[in-house]
Design brief:
Blueprint (H helix, E strand, L loop, with lengths): L2 H34 L4 E5 L6 E7 L6 E7 L1 E5 L10 E9 L6 E12 L1
Antiparallel strand pairs: 1-4, 2-3, 5-6
Amino acid sequence: MTNKEIIEISIKALSAMGTLIIATLAIFGPTVKKWFYKVKLTFHIDGKEPYIIECNSTELFSSDINKSLSINLQIKNIGNITALNTQLYVEKIFRIRQENQTYYLDREIIPSNFY
């Protein structure tokens, strides 16, 4: 075998390996991408007190009062890709006892989702 034949064979082999790698990435690309790019959400309750604020609002044309709770909750994405279609589900509400600073279950609710 001459040097020219060895170079031609090695170029064909590199071309075949490159084609195989590109075809593999085309088929399994999203799976490989998920290994390197991930969403990582962290939750942190804001440092401002009170952590939970009860808000009362009255209806415009009636005397009905609507009660709602506002929670200072901070959600950060420290991952390296944007989080899409994320939701927060609330299932239980806990309250704190004033006398010994322990928590008790106030109510369980039907899960509400917040986008």
